[in-house]
Amino acid sequence: MMAYPENQTVPAGLVVPSNRAISIRPVLPHDTAIAQSFFRSLSSNARYNRFMSPFQHAPKGWIERFSQRSCASHVSLIACLLTEGKELMIGEAQYTIDECGRSAEFALCVGDDWQNNGIGTQLLLRLETIGKQVGLSSLYCDTLGANYAMRRVLHKTGFQFKALCAGCLRFEKTLAPIVA
Q1: How far apart are CA 105 and CA 140, in angstroms?
Q2: FRET label pair with 57: which of 41, 42, 109, 164, CA 20 to 30 Å apart?
Q3: Residue 66: which of 102, 91, 49 has the closest Cα?
Q4: In this structure, how many other beta carbons lie within 10 angstroms of the beta carbon of residue 160?
Q5: Pairing mode, if any, of strands 138-144 and 103-110?
Q6: For the residues 41-58, what does the mean pLDDT come to?
């Protein structure tokens, strides 16, 4: 399996209604503060959909694990825009390669005020591209049945319903290898 590609910031090709461009980039160790701000900005429903638990504060260790530099077994991306000269994190996506080493479980979340702008779709497509580059055969996620926003993104990006797992829906997508 190839190492994680050290990509720089990638323009997402999205412009939100306020006419500001969004970039998607790998998370960096100094992103802890914007990750904490992002978590605090989420509604209780968004936090529940992302973590499948009613957290009031970021789960213990999540900010630290999230802001670790992406590596071969773990990739974290953030969607940002510049506001008043500072980056504002408006979405996140990450995957962790499972024990078999060929598939990865992913999760993503877009801030409440930024949903329905294609940001979740772009984050997921970027994760897919990285997964293909490192030789993954599939990506999968578990989501709540009532998380209709996530289900729309999964449907739009070609994920297939696979199973009901512990009250959640499992979706999976086979990744076609990148042909050089």
Answers
A1: 5
A2: 164
A3: 91
A4: 12
A5: parallel
A6: 78
